[in-house]
Amino acid sequence: MRKCPIVVIYCALLCAAFAASAQSFRSFVVKEIRVEGIQRTELGTVFNYLPVKVGETFTEDKSREALRALFTTGFFKDVRLEAEGDVLIVYVEERPAIAQIDVAGVKEFSIDVVRKVLREQGLSEGRIFDRAVLEAAQQELKRQYLSRGKYSTDVQVTVTPLERNRVSINIVVSEGEVAKIQRVNIVGASAFAEEDLRELIVLREPGWLTWYTKHDEYSRQRLAADLETLRSHYLNSGYLDFNIDSTQVSITPDKREIYVTIGISEGTKYTVTDVQLGGQMILPRSELDPLLKLKPGEVFSREKLSQSTKAIADRLGNDGYAFANVNAVPKVDKEASTVSFTIMIDPGRRVYVRRINIAGNTKTRDEVVRREMRQLESAYYDTSKIQLSRRRVDRTQYFSDVSVETQPVEGSTDQVDVNFAVKERTTGTLMVGAGFSSVDKFVLSASVSQSNIFGSGKYLSASVNNGKVNKVYSLSYTDPYYTVDGISRGFDAYRRDTNATSLAIGSYETKTLGGGVRFGYPLSETESISFGVNGETVALTTFSSSPVSYLKFVQTFGSYYSYGATTFGWVSDSRDSLIAPTSGSLSRASSELADGDLKYYRVGYVQQWLQPLTRKLTLALSAELGYADGRAGQPLPFFKNYYAGGPGSVRGYRPYSLGPQGPSGEVLGGRTKVNTGAELLFPMPGAEQDRSLRLAAFIDAGQVYSDNRDVALSQMRSSAGLGLMWSSPIGPLKLSYGRPLNDKAGDQIQRLQFTFGTMF
User: Fold this and answer.
1) Distance (Å, rounded) from C-alpha 383 to C-alpha 273?
2) Would you say 453 and 442 are in contact if contact means Cβ atoms under 8 Å apart?
3) Which of 23, 348, 595, 717 is deepest in the core (most CB within 10 A)?
4) Dihedral through CA 285, CA 290, CA 291, CA 294, nearest 10?
5) Total structural domains in the chain?
6) Do residues 85 and 117 share a domain?
7) C-alpha dist (Å) from residue 580 to 395, 429, 543, 692, 725
């Protein structure tokens, strides 16, 4: 219970007054106690706090103690004690109760958040009203707005008395404008341009994208992070004596503009003369020396030194030394501006993993996380297996954050518990795609999927494509752990209606109904193979305007087909992320062999490489090859041909518009497909720290040929442009603008293409 300073003073004055009349005070044995003035407070509450009971002697000391105890409750704003004969009369005046709290003018926070803040301060409906508590709550509200950069916020409070000793509290907030950073000055920099240093930090002046990033809004936490960024930059560049001398944050009188000044001392650049290993060497030098990233003769880099000590500690951790202590002891020569290091190694004791604990998976079942573990309980601690387990859990994409911590077991010197903490993310997706062209105008497609249905780790997807060309209705289900050793099983059912009459390709319509089952088998942590069987029925319709080759195919083989196909695939994926990869590679090979009314085969290969060039730039290269043909004397059905153009192929060209053409200019598709592409991925200017927003400068090239004998690189179409990838609040969005580089007469252009979606 909070104490009001005014009440304490008043109580002290009452006690002093009571003491001043001590000569007239008469001790007596209490025959009866009466309480006057209570309305809400229980009578028993008053009796519990009184230090005297009926039958006891009431003295001067007990009088002072009674006043102090009743005031301390906070229920009363006035207390008097009187005696009538042997009857003790307690007169109280209760504090009012809070009948209602009204909050107006709040836009930055939800009303629920504001009420929670007030409640944590002790201000809520039904509680005893305390002016000191109200003032504390008022200041806390202002502090919450200060944390959002709103320094001109005004909080006005009105207290209105009501009947039955109650009050109504009305809180009116004038939020004002967010104070924006007008200038960030870095004083003392000479080795690097001030403008380059400002690019490293998050806090910045208002720009064209700061409405989204909010990086022009000051916060103490962001400034602290920026100071550490500056420190790391200098230490990684050899400036061992770098120091931040001062930070000044000033605000204009109207509280709308903020100026930040950072004073630094760079010092001199140091060169490394020697790096030695010392301590307890339980591993051969031949294994440890390659782990040293910092070499003699190089400019000092704290990052390389940290990488060296971490690599050695991790290597020891792979052998069970979970708490290996690896420290670098420097020897600095300030006159020569050189430094040498001795890396001292203390492996500690070898430990076992007692338990693996998982926390944070409120929806996802425990077994879904545990099946990704490569570190086993009761086995030696292995850093590489624990980190691999963390990456595997992260790659399920069920969680937005996965962290791991090693904790010693109390009372044991050779056992540890490994604690995984996960933060679940929304795994349901509603995807919507749209595009524009002079023929299709607006095409809409949608799909609903849940990759972690009921927390089981199983995948379920239903999609609808209501385009003018393709109408697709499909249902897909995958159990990634059909068996405990990681064999997956999936089912697919679909209906696909294709109306090619409005495309550049030859006119035809197909109605396809199909389904199948597929299995996957992991070969390693990055490789897997897959096998599937599916069946289809196809009803084909041609028109008088259809190409002659289409009409001849129908005359020979009819217009209704039933057939089955087997599929086989191999994939190797070493990318560091499935959402925003920056390094690694993806290789995928696939094949399809069909038999029945239609006999054909298709083989394909996709390769992608990602290489980080700098901290901000990533180079992505991709290639795709495909070949198909008929079997057993049958030609390849024309509706199984490859087509090129559009997203995922050659951006800037209308989808399906590239390839061999008929006499009337209609695109016929082909048996051979070649696609290549190069992308330079980089962050959005003004939002360098936001990984959810990336740009890409791309060059695409591709073409479809009648068969492999006609492949000619001179016939490939190419384009260049810019792409945007944004994990927006409504879901992933991809947009590209491509400009053809070598289009020919008759090529159909579609420069703007995009897809977007939302999460649920």
Assistant:
1) 31
2) no
3) 717
4) 110
5) 6
6) no
7) 12, 17, 46, 8, 9
CA pair distance 460, 84, nearest whole angstrom: 83
* Cα separation, 566 vs 600, whole angstroms: 11
Positive/negative CA dihedral, 105, 107, 110, 116: negative
Run of H or E including 56: none
Read off the pLDDT of residues 670-681 as tens digits, 9 standing for 90 and up.
899 999 999 999
Distances from the Cα of 438 to the Cαs of 442, 502, 504, in angstroms? 9, 11, 11
CA distance 355 to 379: 10
Note down the domain range covering 195: 180-265
Q: Are residues 471 and 412 in the same domain?
A: no
Q: How many CA atoms lie within 13 A of 609 on its CB side?
A: 7
Q: Does residue 284 share a domain with residue 261? A: no
439 contact partners, CB below 8 Å, separation of at least 6: 502, 503, 654
Q: How large is the average pLDDT for residues 190-208?
A: 88
Provide the total of helices (H) and of strands (E) in the chain, helices listed first: 13, 35
Pairing of strands 166-174, 97-104: parallel
**How far from chain centre, in Å, is Cα 503?**
40
Residues 307 and 259 in one domain: no
Q: Which residue has the tokens 């995984």?
A: 420
At residue 472, the pLDDT reads: 79
Is the alpha carbon torsion for 299, 302, 303, 305 positive or negative? positive
pLDDT in tens, 313-363: 999 999 999 989 999 999 999 999 999 999 999 999 999 999 999 998 888
- Beta strand ranges found along 599-671 (DSSP E): 600-612, 618-630, 652-653
